[in-house]
Design a protein that fits this description.
The structure is a single chain. The chain has 303 residues and is of the alpha+beta class. The chain folds into 3 domains: 88 residues, 3-Layer(aba) Sandwich (Rossmann fold); 112 residues, ATP-grasp fold, B domain (D-amino Acid Aminotransferase, Chain A, domain 1, 2-Layer Sandwich); 62 residues, Dna Ligase, domain 1 (2-Layer Sandwich), CATH 3.30.1490.20. Bound molecules: adenosine-5'-diphosphate and magnesium ion (MG). Magnesium ion (MG) binds next to loops.
Amino acid sequence: MIHDKSGRATRVALVTADIFPDLYEDDHPLRDALLARGAAVDAVRWDDPAADWDGYDLVVLRSPWDYTSRRDEFVAWARTVSRLANPADIVEWNTDKHYLGELAAAGLPITPTTFVEPGEAWTPPEAGEWVIKPTISVGSRDTGRYLLPEDLTAARALAERLSAAGRTTMVQPYLAAVDTAGETAILCLPDATGALTFSHAIRKGPLLNGRGERLGEYSEDITTRTPSARERDLAERVLGLVPGGADRLLYARIDLVPGQDGAPLLLELELAEPTLFLRTADGAAARLADAILRRIRVSSRAG
Ligand SMILES: Nc1ncnc2c1ncn2[C@@H]1O[C@H](COP(=O)(O)OP(=O)(O)O)[C@@H](O)[C@H]1O
Ligand SMILES: [Mg+2]
């Protein structure tokens, strides 16, 4: 066990949801690497009323994916946790995809997106393949792919359902390169000095395989990937625009898909609770465990 000056073991909470009492499997290598380094590790659901968050040296968000229907409650909870990674202001900013509009305004190439606010009238595009999805979602929930004009009724129905629930709708062209090149997820973790650095990358196959809303269980086709120089460069630029600076982050995932001309577009920046695909890269779980313990050492010296 690692102990502090008073002899107390270093304690890390990995935050999950009630459906993953033993964590999501992607985080098992992280838990094991922390245990191997002598830390005490608890899997705790974010909405556990009995959790003692102040009793942890660091509270690390991992799989709290049931927050999407009560995101205000989730953000309010995050604000009460003093030692949270990533920090609560980042969680608030990043769990609503309106941040994509900010990044576009700052000049970054994002997936072309129209935001339709609740109650606002939406004029559907006349033709082409389109994706409709909410600004607050994980795991492609409430997300559909529509060929217009054939699927107009179904497309309108999803947009109207989101609007009626007070949710913002995003309308994007279906990026067909996701079917061939796939989606590239670039994972960044702190290096030995604590600076956020490229760690590894994966290719994810397409998730919207049929027309209409994606429903039910799905499996992700994940393989390792060496990102191109353009993809690495865009990931750097995205991180350069993170409010408060990227070096506050314990982890970041940048999801990119090629646009029509082949240049990468940002599909999503995941700073709240991304799957990190730790098994796909040698040493990734060890690097993250070391970064967690380093952060705890640095903040206990500072505090
Ligand atoms: N514009 C798009 N073109 C092609 N595929 C898309 C598009 N938007 C979403 N998808 C598919 O849906 C998945 C989920 O969408 P995403 O924007 O990543 O939201 P989240 O992962 O938060 O649910 C993506 O991984 C991708 O497979
Ligand atoms: Mg995604």
